Amino acid sequence: xxxxxxxxxxxxxxxxxxxxxxxxxxxxxxxxxxxxxxxxxxxxxxxxxxxxxxxxxxxxxxxxxxxxxxxxxxxxxxxxxxxxxxxxxxxxxxxxxxxxxxxxxxxxxxxxxxxxxxxxxxxxxxxxxxxxxxxxxxxxxxxxxxxxxxxxxxxxxxxxxxxxxxxxxxxxxxxxxxxxxxxxxxxxxxxxxxxxxxxxxxxxxxxxxxxxxxxxxxxxxxxxxxxxxxxxxxxxxxxxxxxxxxxxxxxxxxxxxxxxxxxxxxxxxxxxxxxxxxxxxxxxxxxxxxxxxxxxxxxxxxxxxxxxxxxxxxxxxxxxxxxxxxxxxxxxxxxxxxxxxxxxxxxxxxxxxxxxxxxxxxxxxxxxxxxxxxxxxxxxxxxxxxxxxxxxxxxxxxxxxxxxxxxxxxxxxxxxxxxxxxxxxxxxxxxxxxxxxxxxxxxxxxxxxxxxxxxxxxxxxxxxxxxxxxxxxxxxxxxxxxxxxxxxxxxxxxxxxxxxxxxxxxxxxxxxxxxxxxxxxxxxxxxxxxxxxxxxxxxxxxxxxxxxxxxxxxxxxxxxxxxxxxxxxxxxxxxxxxx
Length: 579
Prior knowledge:
- The structure is a single chain.
- Helices cover about 30% and strands about 15% of the residues.
- By secondary structure, the protein is an alpha/beta fold.
- The chain has 2 domains: about 95-290, Spore Coat Polysaccharide Biosynthesis Protein SpsA, Chain A (Alpha-Beta Complex), CATH 3.90.550; about 300-575, Spore Coat Polysaccharide Biosynthesis Protein SpsA, Chain A.
- Helix 5 (about 160-170) packs antiparallel against helix 11 (about 365-375).
């Protein structure tokens, strides 16, 4: 009898140790010591429905959609908001309406728009000759929590300006105004009335009209003019407005927008008409479906060159580093986007930057939202996520990563810093996750990280498939990034550290049957206790609490998949594909 009881106890003990998930009580809180609870170590209560659909499975990994087939986009990751319900920031992830301004000239007129559209986000862009617009003057007028100012020495066509502004917006509806739109009380009153009509119609787009024709043009979209009012949420999720496999490079704004609206199964309306607009001649549709957003026609950047990659840098008030940062980035033949999260150093950036740079002044939204919005704005096939203190020694690491992407079409992301395989059997209270094997860049503090010992047999380059990788650098396929809804805004409030966004996106890629890899980038790190989330003990402790909370939240988000099933997919890929 005692032997039997001993065997039963032993079996139970083994089963508990084998389970990768933390033990939770009925309340949803993890059982443990007072220290574990005080450090934020508990699993959030399970949602009232599965937070994500069942994982996509199959015998082979999914690959990017390289065809020109219209493909739906997620507005955001599918799980319900948990943390954001308690955020106190005035920044809104999805404001009701956005005002998109190309080359605005009179800052004093903004008050008319702000009064007519309270709570709106304002996104203004100055390019080429207009990039010398007075930054301080405009920031004093557009100082809301959702207001973005964009500067680039590169001259846009109006089609490109329109497309980029619509992409970076976050509002459900957007109104595009170029420099020729005269902002007066009467014209803005018309804008507001038209915006309200479009909301009621639940349509796709609204055009103003010039000329005597009272109804929709029957011979194409030549008689349709701006300003344009767009139900962005509806068109975006159906793959339209330049977000899918198509761009406006061969069409005017009106023609392209009309096609995007119709391809999304929505209607377009025009001023003075209750009827939907039709393009009976197909003047823009002919051949347009063969154009992809990764093709040269749609991804041209500086000097008319095709943009293979876009570097996106998270910058926060390291003003003394602007010159050396810009100098390092100029080594890359790439489009370069700076998320200037602290709204500083504008003159320094404009002094040292060339036409490849786009300086986006964001109002302290931090990396999750900054990376996501600039990832939508970008034109490169690959997104390279960097931090402002990253110091790459050369550009070879990036060309090596592209070779590996070509070897494995199912790769959605490659990390260039560190990664983990969650193979542990015990739960680490200090990090909110199971213990595991860590690989990648050695630490100066003496933490042990295993070497990357496997190779891709096609390129003979060192790499491993990893369950989770750390930022930065992170190199992502933009196509996949948009398909999956970008980074998860539910992991932090606006302005707070987004610790764990890299792990969550890694898990989500495996969950959707994409792959994640790890390679060496040989960066020179310049972390210091006086910078970023290491600035003082208060910020550091908040960082640690966020890390523990998010790591434990993943068990709820990806219930039944994280971490055991997901880790085994990475291990299996290493055995199958690498030597």
